[in-house]
Amino acid sequence: MHSILVVDDDELVRRTIRHVLQRAGFETIGAAGGAEALRIAREEALSVALVDYRMPGMDGLSLLARLRDVQPSMVRLLVSGALDVDVMVDAVNRGEVARIIQKPVHPKDLVATVREAIETAERAGLRWQRARDTAHQEQGRALDALIARGGISLGLQPITRANDRRTVAFEALLRCDCPTLTGPEQVLAAAEAHDAVHALGRAVAHAAAEWLSKVPAPIQLFLNLHPDELTDAEALMIRMGPLRAHARRVVLEITERSSLIGRPGWAASVGRLREAGFRIAVDDLGAGASSLAALADIDPDIVKLDMSLTRDLDREPRKQRLVDLLCRFASTTGAQVVAEGIETQEEAQTATGLGVDLLQGWYLGRAETDPGRVLRYAMAEELPFSARRAASGMRTKALRLVPADDEAETG
After folding, report:
1. Are residues 240 and 300 in the same domain?
2. I need a surface site. Which of 207, 240, 338, 392 has the fewest CB within 10 A?
3. pLDDT tens, 305-361?
4. pTM to 2 decimals?
5. In this structure, how many other beta carbons lie within 10 angstroms of the beta carbon of residue 95?
């Protein structure tokens, strides 16, 4: 049964309207003004708001605009004895009002108008639902086709040592060739919506293995893991199959798209990955309490500072103190620190001086999909001149990311 909120400061009018609507089979709730109406809307599910235009304190149009924010799907009807045409037309055009009812109104006309407004809204809702279902199905088909034809690829962004700006690793960033799923976020959202995170993970693992066969050892590859991939250790190790031969060169980032808390099996998965030789990084450290909790629970080998901490780091003493604290904490656990989102020489120098081990960001290099350009980064032939110059003479610690020469892979 539809529930209708009737708002009018005149008690007699309010009671009369409620009586008419109740006789027509509707449930009604009355409110004498805007504040009471908003309170009711926050507590009750409503189909319709029938609001008088002229009320003290908050007029009907202002109230309907606020009710739209509280319950967007509610049908909003305005009742008025004197119409200001320009104001009313503007309100309808902005979507604040579905219908305008002019006083006096015959009870039959009132009921008919309310029913018509509800039916119109329901038809629109069905059309919207059908359109959403169709879009959902098309999204799933596009994702399946993208994975099936090998349209998932990776762009590699250099990660450099802070003290000399030499490229020692790359982060593999998702790329795709699809006219409808136009970016990484859309691909990830589609995978989550269609229970295809594991299938996407397999495709990414194959693409990463192909890159590792091209990039010379001991340069390493950082690769993101979705938390959903950590719920089944056995299935995860199968998906990681293409990377097992390169495990010592792979750092798996546990992203903060959602928390690990309450996800069964994640600890076993992390343990199996470490046993296989992979190293673990916690991404987006400093972005929220969940990343700090992950730092405590996972005991990562590497922590990546969120770019919200590194942006304007050279100009914000509070951020500097926090980065210094995180670097000191990481040092006590043996973890290395990567500063993401470095875009200026000043940010790079400040992060280095605070004890960050590795730098990543547009200042050091953007993600590349061309193997030739990636290899030039790997061979230190294409570091930005400003980055090389800024790094020269820098005297700061930088822990060893890659194996020593005698430990490096030969294949």
Report:
1. yes
2. 392
3. 989 999 999 999 999 999 999 999 899 989 999 999 999 999 999 999 999 999 999
4. 0.69
5. 12
